[in-house]
Specification:
Layout: H1 2-17, H2 30-45, H3 47-54, H4 69-84, H5 90-104, H6 109-121, H7 143-146
Helix pairs in contact: 1-2, 1-4, 3-4, 4-5, 4-6, 5-6
Length: 164
């Protein structure tokens, strides 16, 4: 159910960002609907707060404006979970948001989201709670956030929402 709520939140935030008006998803139980409404209201209501949570963890020379829209929304959502959802283990937050990036973003977006969130976790309230090791296979590729792009074509920008 949580994955369904996360996808609904992503769709709602995307709708707001692109000038649309999201609708409340059908069939959500009461608790899931409350979580959906709380997350959408918080992330949409103060996006700068959530951008400030992950912004310092971007590579040198990267600004929040350079991050693709879907990746930016996923990073905001994950930060909301890390700071505002104590019932969700940090490993679940990371894996679920990376899974959404794999589903909705072309290119290296999932690796980028994974790398940034791995760094964000260290400064979150959940830091050290679950002893996540960056040595775990497939954790993240540090070069994604540490290498300065050589030119416009290597920035990794322009990822688009996948059409299913």
């Amino acid at each position: 159910m949580r994955r369904k709520v996360r996808e609904a939140v992503l769709r709602a935030l995307y709708s707001y960002e692109t000038g649309g008006e999201p609708s409340l998803p059908e069939g959500l139980p009461s608790a899931a609907r409350e979580r959906y409404l709380a997350e959408v209201a918080s992330v949409q209501g103060d996006p700068e707060l959530w951008d400030e949570r992950y912004g310092p963890h971007l590579a040198v020379g990267w600004s929040i404006e350079r991050v693709g829209l879907i990746e930016r929304l996923l990073l905001r959502m994950a930060c909301w979970e890390l700071w505002e959802a104590p019932d969700v283990p940090e490993r679940v937050t990371l894996s679920e948001h990376v899974a959404l990036a794999r589903k909705y973003v072309d290119g290296a977006g999932a690796t980028f989201v994974h790398g940034v969130l791995g760094s964000v976790l260290a400064s979150s309230p959940k830091s050290g709670v679950g002893e996540i090791s960056t040595a775990d296979e497939g954790w993240f590729d540090p070069s994604v956030t540490s290498e300065e792009p050589k030119d416009e074509g290597e920035r990794g920008l322009g990822w688009t929402l996948k059409q299913e």
